[in-house]
Design brief:
The protein has 317 residues and is of the alpha/beta class. The protein is built from 11 helices and 9 strands. The chain folds into 2 domains: 139 residues, 3-Layer(aba) Sandwich (Rossmann fold), CATH 3.40.50; 149 residues, Aspartate/ornithine carbamoyltransferase (Rossmann fold, 3-Layer(aba) Sandwich). It binds aspartic acid.
Amino acid sequence: MTEQLRTDGSLRHLLTLETLTRSHIERLLERAQTFVRPLGQRPPRSRALEGATVANLFTEPSTRTRVSFELAAKRLGATVVQLEVQLSSRAKGESMLDTVYTLQALHVDALVIRDAEVGVPGLVAAHVAPHVSVLSGGEAHVSHPTQGLLDALTVYQRKQRFAGLAVAIVGDIRHSRVARSAFHAFSKLGVTDLRIAAPTALMPERAEFAGCTRHTQLEEALGGADVVMMLRIQRERMNEADLPQGERYFAAWGLTRERLALARGDAIVMHPQPMNRGIEIASDVADGPQSVIRDQVRNGVAVRMAVLAEVLAAGPA
Ligand code: ASP
């Protein structure tokens, strides 16, 4: 696996939370919190990254991640270029690296990469020049580190702690990079009661999510939970699963008000989006008083500012 840290211990790439220490994660969250402002207030701006160039290289669809990386870079004074790349899957590795070398020749300092294939951000990180950083904007089903950070920040803002919380992650765990990065973030930060809940077909392999309890009944996972994280079914990552569709999925797995009442009264409801209202979550829950889904979006920009500041501020002038 590509090393994410420089020899002085500072963060150079962000590909996964799995190999970061708790203190690295805490430092990023503390830094991100300094960029958070209530809605209605202008977000902070600085020239900390003036002269730096960030390229967004996304080969899978993205709304929030791409826009928030762009806003994050611009709010710190960097220049941003957007590339939407359509590559034939056979020649992908090679043409991806050609694109990367081109961007490097254009003086790009950080590459944000989203790709449906496992290993692409790491492959690029292993080939870039020493002054270039690679940030994952979502790697296949494997990792989505800035999402894991923004989820952790959202929980901390509401709960002021991680120890002692019961966190239920619900839905298509098997295909979810969001679930994996949340698992790494929460377990490193000290959440001990981590529950994953999914229909059997959407449960991950036994070797994954070590230490989490596994539930094939939603109600069981919700009991006394402080945090309920709902996930979208990743149809694009399945061939055909033996899955209840639409209304039938909602009947067994949809988060309704009645089911949410099984969690603690002050439980928060999260969703990384895009949401399928009426499939994994009822609209009145998604828009209800316990939902922090819009906080997650706002925190996404703050977290990406923190990550960009961390990897680029230490770079060459
Ligand atoms: N936006 C998230 C992701 O990129 C979640 C989703 O697509 O369901 O993984």
